[in-house]
Amino acid sequence: MIYLSNADVQQVLDMETTLEALRTGYADLERGQATHIPRIDLYAPTGRDDDYYRWGSMTGACRAYGVLAVRIKSDVVHWTPSGTEEKYCIAPGTYSGIILLYSIQNGEPLALLNDGYLQHMRVGGGAGIGVDLLARPDAAVLGLLGSGGMAHTYLEAISLVRKLREVRVYSPTPANRERFAAEMSDRVKVPIVAVDDPRTAIIGADIVASATDAIEPTFRAEWLAPGMHVTNVMAQEVSPDVLARADVVMQLGHMTINAEVPGMGTGVGAMAAYVMGEPAERARIPGTKARPSHPMLFTYGEGRAPGRTSRDQITLFLNHGTQGLQFAAVAGRVYQLARERGLGQPMPLEWFVQDIRD
Q: Whole-model pTM?
């Protein structure tokens, strides 16, 4: 068994490899050769009056790579008056998210990976697949909301599936959006302009991508125009008015459990969640309602939904769901490449197997 750090993963995983791995995973899903358990959260009070502990897990298996991946994350979360979610593990600036990779041939533990770099890549890759399938072939202007890690990978993925002519980026902190524009212009070889408000970024764009940590809508339906393609990271970024404005709405897959389960409620982002705490403590968690399901981009045995059927349609791709499968496909490919290059720190297998039946 090996441990792969974010630095190890970064050596073998670029966006082209990410898109290839995701397409392999979704091809398996369409053939019934992949499956996933959607994300489920658990909330527990920290004992402080301004935050909550949150545990999240998601699982997937991909036959093409012969692996099962389970991604687990441990966060202390709080929600700001400005409408964003902040989190950390132990102290601000550190995080705990890991991926455990197993062989589906014999159950052998294969690898433990840090999830940070891979997480950003797989989400950006999902947005790129949505653009490739739903945006107009000649879409060339991107309006981008956000300048953090997800915004970086969204731009990378979209620039690989469409020949961009211009990017306009907005985020609330001027220094962050200016730095993003300077850095990413060089990386993707496309002119990027930092703008002072989200409306300026969106009006006249062909593709709109909201890649933020907001827990409330980031743009307005009246800013959208015929022919646009729209995508997101967080479900909360998209308002009911935007859903109603779109002509075609599709989602990557189920992002959480939809069934009614005793003791299970709904957490932030409409994630299925088990919640501990007194009523006053539970009230700190921002209220969200379960959102309606939309046609899935990839399903088993049902064929592809038609997607865009005319140039003037507004298409909306909700870039969430199938998280466990994405981790299996991308981490499975990372594991192959890391083994080929001799990367990773060996770990004793006996740490992860035992001779007592469990």
A: 0.92
